[in-house]
Amino acid sequence: MKINGISQGYIGILLFVLLSGTAMVFYPGGTLHDNSTIGYQFFYNYFSNLGEWTARNGEPNSLSAYLFNSALIILAVSYFTFYYNFLKKLSLKLNNKFFSFSLIITVVISMLSFVFVAVFSGEPSTHDLHVFFVKLAFRTMFVHCVFQVLAMFRINEISMVVRFISIFFSLALLGYILIMDFGPKAGESNQALFIQVIAQKVVVGSILIYYFFQLTAAKILTNTKSINHE
After folding, report:
1. What's the angle, vertex CA 126, arms to CA 125 and CA 131, rounded to 5?
2. What are phi and psi of 40, to 5 degrees?
3. How far is it, in rounded angstroms, from Cα 137 to Cα 129?
4. What are the tens digits of pLDDT across the range 54-91?
5. Closest Cα to residue 40, out of 18, 56, 16, 19?
6. What is the pLDDT of residues 85-128, one digit of tens each?
7. I want to staple 16 with a disulfide (CB 3.0 to 4.6 A). Which of 68, 75, 90, 127 is the partner?
């Protein structure tokens, strides 16, 4: 497979999964409500816990922090690189400057916010900035996805599968934002923490799946363009 601005996205997804998974293996332990747990608790530890330099049980967490923060930055840079190249092809089909500008500005803000989520960890000294950029990242990504869905339905070459995956992801993202803002607060109880952590895991998985299907859509547009020029 030739590596270019679009196909590198598959590498970005793979690196995020591998680095995050490795960070989970080396996470010392501790959750928001229980600092006696050992290792990463998939249903009770946020992804953000991996990026904290001190684990919730008080032990140093440098290795996991380096791995996860690198994974998040790599995924953000990968997605922006992909989308910049994808948008050049998408713009030719859309022929609409408003759509093109809205798509690029929202993805820039969202991806920069994810980078700052990694820069400002969830530890007490940077917690407020961490939360601010988490919320900004997901909100601007939702706005981006709404424009993306509208764009997908304006392009005949995009399959119905990709279109409905885009709709499903937008709804999943909206659901997560609502749970994050109006759901039970993680600090209230272990059950509330469980709900928030699972919601986060679902939306992160959805992001990776959505990214994968966008790569597919980009390949379709590239192949269509190539055929039209023959």
Report:
1. 135
2. -80, 125
3. 12
4. 999 999 999 999 999 999 999 999 999 998 888 877 77
5. 56
6. 888 777 777 777 888 888 999 999 999 999 999 999 999 899 99
7. 75
